[in-house]
Amino acid sequence: MSRTLILDCNDKIGEEVTISGWVQVRRDHGKIGFLDVEDRTGIIQVFCTADKLGDIRVQDVVEITGKIAERPEKLINPNLETGKIELQSETVTVLSKAAELPFDMGMKTLDLQLPTLLDFRALTLRHSEVRNIFKIQSAILEGFRKVSKELDCVEIVVPEIAIGSTEGGAEVFKVDYYGHQATMTQSPQLYKQMLVPVFERVFTVAHAYRAEPSVTTRHLSVATQMDCEFGFVAFEELLDLFEKVGTETLKHVENECPKELKKFGFKPVAFGKIPRLTLREAQEIIFKEFGRDNRNEKDLNPQDEIDICKWALEKHGSDLVTITHFPTVKRAFYTMPDPENPEYSLSYDLLFRGLEILSGSQRINDYDQLVEAIKSRGMKPEEFELYLQAFKYGMPPEGGFSFGLERMTMNLLQLQNIRQASLFPRDMERVDIRLSTLKK
Amino acid sequence: MSRTLILDCNDKIGEEVTISGWVQVRRDHGKIGFLDVEDRTGIIQVFCTADKLGDIRVQDVVEITGKIAERPEKLINPNLETGKIELQSETVTVLSKAAELPFDMGMKTLDLQLPTLLDFRALTLRHSEVRNIFKIQSAILEGFRKVSKELDCVEIVVPEIAIGSTEGGAEVFKVDYYGHQATMTQSPQLYKQMLVPVFERVFTVAHAYRAEPSVTTRHLSVATQMDCEFGFVAFEELLDLFEKVGTETLKHVENECPKELKKFGFKPVAFGKIPRLTLREAQEIIFKEFGRDNRNEKDLNPQDEIDICKWALEKHGSDLVTITHFPTVKRAFYTMPDPENPEYSLSYDLLFRGLEILSGSQRINDYDQLVEAIKSRGMKPEEFELYLQAFKYGMPPEGGFSFGLERMTMNLLQLQNIRQASLFPRDMERVDIRLSTLKK
Fold first, then answer.
1. Which residues are within 8 A (CB) of A281 and not within 5 positions of it... i.e. 6 or more apart?
2. pLDDT per residue as tens digits for the range B252-289
3. Is B158 part of the contact surface with chain A (CB cutoff 8 Å)?
4. Alpha-carbon distance A324 to A345, whole Å?
5. Is residue A169 pLDDT above 70, yes or no?
6. For labeling, which of A31, A295, B76, B418 is most exposed (least CB within 10 Å)?
7. What is the pTM of this model?
8. What is the DSSP letter of B272?
9. CB–CB of B178/A213 below 8 Å?
């Protein structure tokens, strides 16, 4: 008998069906009992006589044939999409037997310490609370690609092994590449810029490898970056594009995952007109409205970000706020200094509810200026040979931006630790297993 | 004046517009001349008086203001989408000056040797013939994701740095991971399987790192893999899914890129019902129809693949043919042996016009059997700790498949060398620049 998906059982009252899925809960009541069985569409309550329950336990993979019955009115579960029905089992087959679980997987919340959550990652990801994080994450990716495509961007596949050129700053992972020392790329930045003269507008999703010896709750050694780059755009138009990609991605996630977002207590995004402030204007507002004088700081601190977002929501009905003109020295070498005041740059961040989710800039597109910028940061132009080639043969005014997928997931869902926003997080202490368990 | 995209100029006859783009061709005729200017939408002929032409050359980035005029009937160019109009320039501004080109970029075909094509990759990618390869490649990616989504697969982001576990066989790149020796993953295989109990159906696009010391025209050291994995599917259903993903991806590319495909002489795909043959059946046909007795070989050789595709097109009107049941020893350890004859496996390849484009199998989903399979290949189960965890706690019957993005691009377009199908190919001899130019 062919499989019926669990959610489709709602339309099969009185019919015989075969479902398959994982046992999530087992409830024994003497001679009878119940199983909650889950597949990719939902959960159904299965009524069983005790003989059929045998030694079935949570995470066993089962195939169950039986009849779909309506539940009596008072037993309807309004919190379950199949809450008006149950499956009255006739045959129960265990397709795959689960070992005894190291902790309870049947609770609504999986209350585990982070190391345990990650030591048993292949198991804990199955819990709906954890799984929902990654359903939402897949919607972020899809939303990002959808709006990028609408903006005429062509998808590019960029390499992640490079020789020589690094963007400076962050430390890099080293690879033995046929006896040569290569590095894992810190971002798709240099490659996406090189493709502006090819497609004018491009997007990509790529890994960002960052070997900092950092164990903070906000740092991953390997992150995922969503990047766009646009040619023939001036600064104001870049801001339009950047805000559009940010808002459309958020809207897509809201549309695709309303149920999952609700479980994280996510409130609908306020999409008022996004205020645009220079760093200095934002600091002025923070001084006037919140009484903290950070007007000479080179960046917003975490409290500043929270406060300026609070201000944007109150004054402009917007959960988003754009901050521009960060000090040139604080941004990467390819960032265009503001011609009117080169101490500041044509850079921008998009803040969402107190945290930065997107960052970018107009780029230096003049070959000579770019060579000078590389030198001024103590790097060698000859290590950027192919990158500079793109500028040597005609590069229009251009710019772009990127968001961190895990960071955005974490911020949207207010997760405690960015590791919760990565299926298989890599950090100083872990590559699936704890590195401390390995011989050096 | 705001920018008009070149293709939109067709609707602006008699109006003044500003276009911007790259000079592709310059033609001088004494006191007048013409520029062909290209942006992301198309090419337009620009009429200039000699004074406006100055020292403009190919690849200069220009912004041109002028009036759109209809061309006289006899000067219409039917091969150009803007062939009925031209732009009569009033002001010509060079936004970015290109250096003198190392070779002619204005020819219809870019007739360069591969090393030169790659030494000047940031330039050669701009040639429409090269660029079209990657427009088609982006449509392959999009088509793959579209059908995967339709099949209820959730997109996953898999890590590409791992410790210990390799799939065996191919050599691996080694990374210094905070003092520990890690490796770049050979495929997303192990991770996508681990996510079957989470989402049941998943897809991903990931790098495949293969450190073989090989310099053939068909080998890349880093390839891009498109992968699906499905739970609760038996062998026949897996074949349905696999053929669907293959055909829908091809159809999407045909729909999205008709113009680009035509330039490669691509003939419409024959989508007759796909014949399914075991390896031995295929070899029998090759023996009977083509007179070559390879009935004891463990795989099809290149001529076999060509011939069996010829047969499938003639007998079944299909450019695709599915071959199943390859010898178990020839496939990876996780491949399910056929229970009826374990010498052969529940594996499959999809051939397209003489070349394999997809490959996959039903997997071993029983924990103990999988541990034995790992041992039987001389590998250590303890190096697969997290992978095996997924099987320990309940794994349904499952299987999947993958295609190589560059390989499929190469096969579709009949490219000579797989390096032509990678924006920035990595091989033994090159990482953007030639490795021989580096100190070891």
1. none
2. 999 999 999 999 999 999 999 999 999 999 999 999 99
3. yes
4. 8
5. no
6. A31
7. 0.97
8. P
9. yes
**Residues in chain B within 8 Å Cβ distance of A232:** 3, 20, 39
Q: Largest alpha-carbon pair distance within chain B?
A: 83
For the domain covering A122-437, report its CATH number.
Answer: 3.30.930.10
Contact criterion met (CB below 8 Å) for B391 and B367: yes
Distance CA B64, CA B44 (A): 11
Question: Cα(A11)–Cα(A28) distance, rounded to whole angstroms?
Answer: 28
Q: How far apart are CA A221 and CA A186, in angstroms?
A: 10
B12-53, pLDDT tens digit by residue? 999 999 999 999 999 999 999 999 999 999 999 999 999 999
- Provide the chain B residues 404-433 that lie in CB contact (below 8 A) with chain A: 405, 422-424, 426, 428, 431-433
- E runs forming strands in A77-221: 85-96, 154-155, 161-162, 174-177, 180-184, 201-209
Contacts of B203-207 spanning 24+ positions with Cβ under 8 A: B203/B144, B203/B145, B203/B148, B203/B149, B203/B153, B203/B154, B203/B155, B203/B156, B203/B227, B203/B228, B203/B229, B204/B155, B204/B156, B204/B157, B204/B158, B205/B141, B205/B144, B205/B145, B205/B405, B206/B158, B206/B160, B207/A160, B207/B160
Question: Is domain A6-96 given the CATH code 3.30.1330.60 in the classification?
Answer: no
Of the candidates B75, B40, B36, B30, which has an alpha carbon nearest to the alpha carbon of residue B56?
B36
Q: Give the H/E segment covering residue B285.
A: helix B279-290
Cα angle A413-A419-A425, degrees, rounded to a multiple of 5: 135
d(CA B62, CA B26): 13
Chain B: nearest CA to A222, how far in angstroms?
8
Q: Tell me, what DSSP letter sits at residue A217?
A: T
Q: What is the pLDDT of residue B440?
A: 54
Give residue B325's region: left, alpha or beta (phi > 0; psi -120 to 50).
Answer: left
- Contact call for residues A138 and A215 (beta carbons, < 8 A): no
Helix (H, G, I), strand (E, B) or coil at B60: coil
> Which of A81, A49, A46, A80 is closest to A64 using CA atoms?
A46
Q: Chain A: give the shortest CA distance to residue B353, in Å.
A: 25
For residue B272, what are the contacts with CB-CB under 8 A and spacing of at least 6? B316, B317, B318
| Per-residue pLDDT, A107 | 84
Average pLDDT over residues B407-432: 96
Q: Within an 8 Å CB–CB cutoff, is residue B157 touching chain A?
A: yes
Domain residue spans of chain B: 6-96, 122-437
One-letter-per-residue 3-state SS of A340-386: CEEEEECEEEEEECCEEEEEEEEECCCHHHHHHHHHHCCCCHHHHHH
Which residue type sits at B405?
L
**How close B130 gets to chain A, by Cα (Å)?**
9
